[in-house]
Design a protein that fits this description.
The complex is a heterodimer of chains A (about 260) and B (about 180). By secondary structure, chain A is of the alpha+beta class. Chain A is built from 7 helices and 9 strands; from the N terminus they run H-H-H-H-H-H-E-E-E-E-E-E-E-H-E-E. In chain A, strand 3 and strand 4 form a beta hairpin. The chains are: A alpha+beta (about 260), B mainly alpha (about 180). The interface between A and B is large, with 73 and 83 residues.
Chain lengths: ~260, ~180
């Protein structure tokens, strides 16, 4: 029997059948359809039928809560009176978190915006979180992750809380907090000060400091590409989770969801 | 306070949507990528996007349809980007055992039956040796050595058979499309 098979493709199948993550590098172009069929057959033969792992469901729930809490933090909005928020559901949650509608809410909202708005030169220490804020958000707490003195303009520090591995970054005076976990395959991102991004060492996704994928296909479609890259990152990735962040005196704190 | 109440409702609604759909979306994706790590990544991608973009005030059927559409695109992207397949993922073999409008919580047994039927339909169109090797390896989860012994061929020949069987089956699926 002529042995025309490829050793690499055999390894692809073996990885698949042992439940691991197979590598696309083991599959050459013309084997793509075979790889896809093998994946589907393997799924069909799995006695567990693709039932999700309970721990995975819980972790994703926490990631979503953190992301949701964070989306408020970096959004560019105009307050008050002329509230402009892009996304309907987040809008309601933002309003909730910032206590709008509750006494003192607008002051808290304005302070939060001042800290986080791009363009402000210095982070403004905020002591004006609405007292009702924490309890309205529910399960979570502020956790100190860095000292402001250790975070000069352009610097970034890694932090870990129970729910999130992240970076706090001083982006031209604006303190931002972002997840350090790539939304593709959960590799740990690297902060590149010069490039102003968080870069994934695994497959090369770059996220800007608002957490959005920065070197995706849109940039190439628009003709400007991404500095330093020769091709678009090929997938649409969801943005990085962004916990809320605040500065109290010298203390940089992020909001951390509890299990 | 009325607005705050609405927001609390929105949060609760989103979490309820997650509870209702996470299993079905994971199964849907898993049936198409065949491994848990990638299925978890793509499932996470679907729901992280939902955090950003899904309007929870839409009627339930639209929410389901939105989630499955995002999942389907994520799977198509996966095969296109990493395996350089031009236009796939919409209705491949796995599509044959999914309802046209995916149900929120499909009965697991019915699902498995559909899958088994689709696979049987494919296998009967293959030469017997090819069908056997795929059945033993993928459905019965036997090792190459065990498969070779069942088929009465050498270890090397079992691997060659597996490769040829996949190639032939992939060509069949392709011409169906």
């Amino acid at each position: 029997m002529v042995d025309e098979r490829s050793e690499a493709f055999d390894r692809f199948v073996d990885t698949l059948l042992s439940g691991g993550r197979p590598s696309p590098d083991q599959v050459v172009d013309e084997e793509g359809p075979m790889a896809q069929l093998a994946a589907e057959l393997s799924a069909a033969g799995d006695p567990h039928k693709g039932e999700p792992d309970a721990a995975f469901i819980e972790q994703l729930r926490l990631r979503m809560r953190d992301a949701d809490a964070g989306i408020a933090a970096v959004q560019d909005w105009v307050l008050p009176g002329d509230v402009q928020l892009g996304r309907a559901r987040i809008t309601r949650r933002d309003l909730l978190r910032l206590g709008i509608g509750a006494a003192g809410g607008l002051a808290a909202a304005a302070a939060a915006t001042a800290i986080l708005r791009a363009g402000s030169r210095e982070p403004i220490p905020s002591a004006s979180e609405s007292p009702s804020d924490g309890q309205l958000v529910g399960d979570g707490q502020w956790v100190e992750v860095a000292s402001l003195a250790d975070l000069p303009v352009g610097a970034a520090l890694r932090f870990s809380t129970t729910a999130l591995d992240g970076y706090v970054v001083n982006d031209a005076g604006t303190i931002r907090a972002l997840s350090a976990v790539c939304t593709h395959q959960a590799c740990t991102l690297i902060y590149r000060q010069v490039w102003h991004d968080l870069r994934c060492p695994c497959h090369g996704a770059s996220f800007d400091l608002s957490g959005k994928l920065a070197n995706g296909r849109e940039g190439w479609a628009a003709g400007h590409g991404y500095l330093g890259d020769s091709a678009a990152y090929p997938l649409d990735l969801p943005p990085l989770a962004r916990p809320r962040v605040r500065v109290l005196g010298d203390s940089v704190q992020v909001w951390t969801a509890l299990a | 306070m009325a607005r705050a109440d609405r927001s609390a409702n929105a949060i609760a609604r989103f979490e309820a949507i997650y509870e209702q759909h996470v299993t079905a979306i994971h199964r849907f994706v898993y049936a198409r990528v065949g491994n848990r790590p990638d299925a978890e990544d793509l499932t996470a991608l679907v729901f992280m996007r939902a955090v950003e973009q899904l309007d929870v005030d839409r009627p339930a059927p639209q929410i389901s349809a939105w989630l499955f559409r995002v999942a389907q695109n994520a799977v198509a992207d996966y095969w296109r980007a990493f395996y350089r397949l031009p236009q796939v993922g919409v209705d491949h073999v796995a599509g044959a055992w999914e309802p046209a409008v995916p149900q929120v919580s499909p009965h697991a047994d019915a699902d498995a039956d559909r899958a088994a039927t689709a696979v049987r339909r494919l296998l009967v169109r293959l030469p017997e040796q090819y069908a056997r090797v795929l059945e033993l390896r993928f459905l019965n989860r036997l090792s190459v050595a065990e498969t070779a012994s069942r088929l009465g061929v050498s270890h090397g020949n079992a691997k060659v058979l597996q490769y040829r069987a996949l190639r032939r089956a992939a060509a069949l699926v392709d011409t169906d499309g």
